[in-house]
Input
Amino acid sequence: MYLQLTIFIIIIAIVIDVIFGELPAKIHPVVWMGKLIDFLSGYLTSYRSKISGIILTFLVVIIFTLATYVLLHLSAFNYILYILISSIILSTTFAIKVLLTSAENMKNDIDHNIEKARQSMSFLVSRNTMELNEEDLVSATIETLTENITDSIIAPLFYAFIFGVPGAVVYRVINTLDAMVGYKTPEKIKIGWFSAKSDDVLNFIPARITGVFIVIAAVFLRLNWKNAYNIMRRDARKPESPNSGFSMAAAAGALDIKLEKIGYYEIGDELSPLTTEKITEAVSLSKITVLLFILVASVLFGIFTVLI
Output
């Protein structure tokens, strides 16, 4: 019964996210995570010890995991309320609508106002965007989209299927910590190392699953699925991150394009022009990838519930 309820909650959470998008910032758990991370890291950074990174990670994970359990426990007296609260909390751990809409908006900006596109892109990537040309912006958009399929969608859902709502919350906490303090700068290398390593571990399986599902999605869309598989095998490990390259490489191969972060990596081969239409194809590829994962995961999880 619990496992069947988990699938139901996951489906409702996905519907909530696709229809309504993100909660307002004032009540969004990830915003609260960010504020707590800022507050705690402000105190712990001064210790300049790797232990501070472990303490920070465990504190934030424990606080948000306990808060999740308390909310779920308090709502358990009413079946419908429990499902609603669980679904809303879970919906905040992934961002299907925001991720896809951001890519579509970037395409529109590149087509009509490249200065606005450069400004918008500056909020999405760490590189200097003010001198990027159209091809650079298209590449950065597709890189951002395909890399975040793992972090923003597949991984939290993967852990929701296995560990329920608390599992997805723990993943989102670790991923948020990595995004905020997981940098190899003198100020953050001590406090951010543990969350960065934890994020690498948690994304190891989801990243590779995402790459495989992109290849399968390419089959359904009649894209170059063979190239998607070959490029993933060849180029997935080119980025510094041990996980981000799998989805990017599979997508680059499927779209017959080369994705490049100048001075860091080149993924794929330039078999087709890097036009804004490739963003549209990448969005379609992402949608089918996510849909396939949800369907397959639900079926496998359903079979598992019957067997036990």
